[in-house]
Structure formats: C-alpha cells, structure tokens
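We give its fold:
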Amino acid sequence: HVQLVESGGGSVQAGGPLRLSCAASGYTVSSTRMGWFRQAPGKEREGVACIGRDGITMYSDSVKGRFTISKDNAMNTLYLQMNNLKPEDTAMYYCAAMREYTRTPTMRPADFDYWGQGTQVTVS
C-alpha cells in the first residue's frame, strides 16, 4: 500500500521561503519518477517539478530558478525547496509518484499513479 504524506506548507510573505517534504511508504523514491504539483482554486492541477530515478529534474517555467526538487533516498523522502515565493504560488501542493519508470520526463498529472493528500501554501 503506497502512502505519500506531504508536510511543510503554511503561510508566508512574498519573497520568503518554504520547504515541502513528502514522506513515502510502500514506495521507494529512487525507483521511478516523482513530482510536485499544485492546484489553485478554480484552476487545473499543474506540474511544478519532477525528478527521475536518474536524478534528472524538470521545472515549469513559472518556478524555474526559484524552486528546487530533491530527494533523500535514505530517508525515502521527496523535497521541494521554494524560494522567492510569489502570491501566484498560492495553491494546494501535492507530491506524486509513477508506478513505472519512463525515460522521458513528464509533469502531466495523468502520468502519475500515486498521490498525497496535499499541503496548503499561501503567499501574501
């Protein structure tokens, strides 16, 4: 049974940092590909960043240079370091994992099989 549990969300002033964590159980973070997604009210869920088992990362244009995705294989945890946060970053943030590895990086939500419950990030 796969469980992904996000933490680290909260309220922060514009320009500030936050670090999200996603603890995995029943799934090994180094096995396939994981990603961070977000969904604001009234908007579709969008990919923010992903990282493959090869360590190759991908970012959306809106967060490139401000967010960093990483994973700690020993802790079996995925992270998202968010710097210089903007009000438009306000959303529910989810981590997700793919059941099988694909060589081509993807941030399409439909490509991910396992999802956490989300953690709210509010930037004012």
